[in-house]
From TrEMBL:
The lineage of its organism: Bacteria, Pseudomonadati, Pseudomonadota, Betaproteobacteria, Burkholderiales. The keyword Heme does not apply. This is Substrate-binding domain-containing protein. Belongs to the PstS family. The keyword Signal applies. It comes from Undibacterium rugosum. Residues 1-23 form the signal peptide. Pfam families: PBP_like_2. Residues 70-224 form the PBP domain.
C-alpha cells in the first residue's frame, strides 16, 4: 500500500512538572490532542498505570488551534499535534516540540468491483484526481496503470478536510513535488482551497463515514493505531496500492 508519512508532534512546556497536578498522591497529567491519537495515549496511560497505579492521564480531544494557548496557560501539561508549530511561536510561548510518533497517510477509495489493494495510482495521477482534472475511474491515465483491471465508468467523488490537518499538509507536500500544476493551483499547507467539486468534511470520522457510503469516493486518511481501532477502516473499504518509491518519506513499496 502506498504510504505518506507525517510526524505526530508533541508540544510540551519547557518545565512540564510545573503543570502536573497532584491530588491524594495521584499524579494527574492533562493532555490536549488530535482525536485520532486519543486511543494511543489512552493505551500508554493505562500501561503506565498498571506499573504505577497512582498515575492518571486525561486526554481531551481539541482543535489544534487551541493547543499552544492551553499549554502556555497551564490548563494542559502537554499537547499532541500533527502540525508543527512555527519556531517563532515556540520561542514566544517558551515551549518545545519534538517528534514522538510516525503515522501513515494513505489514499483510500470506495470502488465497487475492485478488490482491496489492487488499484494502482501514482503521484501525478493522484494529483490529477485531487485537482479535478481526472473525473472518472476509467480515465485513460488510471487505466494505463491498471491494464488488468476492469475499471467502472464511475464518476470520482473527491473528499477532503475543511479544517487544519496534518494529513492535508503531508499529502499536499507530496503531490506538489509530483505535480507542478498541483503546486501552482492548490499548493502546500494544512488547510487548502480545494476545487469546487471537492466535498469538504468537518472531521476524519466524517470522511471515513462518507467513504464507506459513497461509491466512487476517494480521500486520504491516517492509518495509525488509533484509526484502525476506532474506525476499523482496514476492513470496510479498499485502498489504493501505489508502486513507486516515496524517497522523501523513507518507504520503498513492494514491486
Amino acid at each position: 500500500m502506498k504510504k505518506l508519512f507525517v510526524k505526530a508532534l508533541l508540544t510540551a512546556v519547557l518545565c512540564v512538572s510545573a503543570n502536573i497536578a497532584l491530588c491524594d498522591n495521584v499524579v494527574t497529567v492533562n493532555v490536549v490532542g488530535v482525536p485520532y491519537m486519543h486511543y494511543v495515549y489512552k493505551m500508554l496511560g493505562d500501561d503506565f498505570n498498571s506499573i504505577e497505579n497512582r498515575f492518571l492521564l486525561r486526554y481531551v480531544d481539541e482543535n489544534a488551534n487551541n493547543f499552544a494557548m492551553k499549554v502556555s496557560a497551564g490548563s494542559a501539561d502537554f499537547s499532541v499535534s500533527d502540525i508543527p508549530m512555527p519556531h517563532n511561536e515556540l520561542i514566544a510561548r517558551k515551549l518545545i516540540q519534538f517528534p514522538v510518533m510516525v503515522t501513515a497517510i494513505v489514499p483510500v477509495v470506495n470502488l465497487p468491483g475492485i478488490d482491496s489493494d489492487k488499484l494502482v495510482l501514482d503521484g501525478p495521477v493522484l494529483a490529477g484526481i485531487m485537482m479535478g482534472d481526472i473525473t472518472t475511474w476509467n480515465h485513460a491515465s488510471i487505466s494505463a496503470l491498471n491494464p488488468n483491471l476492469s475499471l467502472p465508468s464511475l464518476r470520482i467523488k473527491t473528499l477532503a478536510r475543511s479544517y487544519s490537518s496534518g494529513a492535508t499538509l503531508a499529502i499536499s507536500t507530496y503531490l506538489a513535488k509530483k505535480s507542478s500544476r498541483f503546486a501552482k493551483n492548490i499548493g502546500v499547507g494544512d488547510s487548502l482551497k480545494w476545487p469546487a467539486d471537492v466535498q469538504l468534511m468537518h472531521s476524519g470520522e466524517a470522511i471515513e463515514t462518507a467513504l464507506s457510503k459513497t461509491p466512487g469516493a476517494i480521500s486520504y486518511v491516517e492509518m495509525d493505531v488509533g484509526n484502525i481501532k476506532q474506525m476499523k477502516c482496514k476492513r470496510e473499504f479498499p485502498r489504493t496500492l501505489q508502486r513507486e518509491q516515496w524517497l522523501n518519506y523513507g518507504v520503498t513499496l513492494p514491486a
